[in-house]
């Protein structure tokens, strides 16, 4: 079964694109990597990222990857994740090598938008998100691209970057569907 990592900085439109994609290809199940990690601890998502020491965080990532790999034996999966995590002590990989070895994804999909559009979307979002400037959002997107290339190098998977401008989620979902079908 296919394992597709789908990522993007918070506010890029990823959830909306995935929702539209599922209307086109309902045979995929969406699994949120962070939700699997959270299920192992009784913490909120941002609390987990901010308070767990790096070595414990990596252990949670590997346990989540093993659980997802078992699910993927029966279903095609879109694995909603972050390739780059901004912790108080700096950026870390959302997909360390041991996690990638376990998951062995077929494709990495990055959903992107203009930093100014992401900033506007975040202002409307009810979730308590860390504040990032347009420069920091752009840097985060660049780091996602670098992380995706590293993942492709380590796992020999494909990468696709899909631009998701405001109001064009259906178009982005069609592009995602075409890319996945081509695998």
Distance N terminus to C terminus?
Answer: 12 Å
Determine the number of helices (DSSP H or I, runs of at least 4 residues).
8
What can be said about the biggest beta sheet?
5 strands, parallel
Q: For the residues shown, what is the average pLDDT?
A: 91
Structural class: alpha/beta
Q: Numbering strands along the chain, what is their spatial order in the largest sheet?
A: 2-3-1-6-7
- The 3D shape can be described as globular
Low-confidence stretches: none
Percent helix range: 40-55%
Q: Mind telling me the C-alpha Rg?
A: 15 Å
What pattern of helices and strands is seen along the backbone? Answer: EHEHHHEEEHEHHEH
Give the percentage of residues in beta strands. Answer: 15-25%
Number of strands: 7
């Amino acid at each position: 079964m296919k394992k597709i990592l789908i990522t993007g900085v918070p506010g890029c439109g990823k959830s909306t694109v995935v929702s539209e994609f599922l209307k086109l290809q309902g045979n995929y199940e969406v699994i949120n990597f962070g939700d699997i990690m959270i299920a192992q601890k009784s913490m909120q998502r941002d609390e987990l990222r901010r308070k767990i020491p790096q070595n414990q965080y990596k252990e949670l990532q590997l346990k989540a990857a093993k659980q997802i790999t078992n699910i993927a034996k029966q279903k095609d999966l879109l694995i909603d994740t972050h390739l780059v995590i901004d912790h108080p002590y700096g950026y870390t990989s959302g997909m360390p090598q041991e996690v990638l070895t376990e998951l062995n994804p077929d494709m990495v999909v990055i959903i992107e938008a203009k930093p100014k559009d992401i900033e506007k979307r975040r202002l409307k979002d009810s979730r308590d998100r860390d504040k990032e400037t347009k420069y920091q959002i752009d840097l985060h997107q660049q780091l996602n691209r670098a992380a995706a290339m590293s993942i492709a190098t380590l796992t020999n998977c494909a990468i696709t970057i899909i631009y998701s401008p405001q109001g064009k989620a259906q178009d982005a979902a069609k592009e995602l569907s075409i890319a996945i079908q081509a695998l």
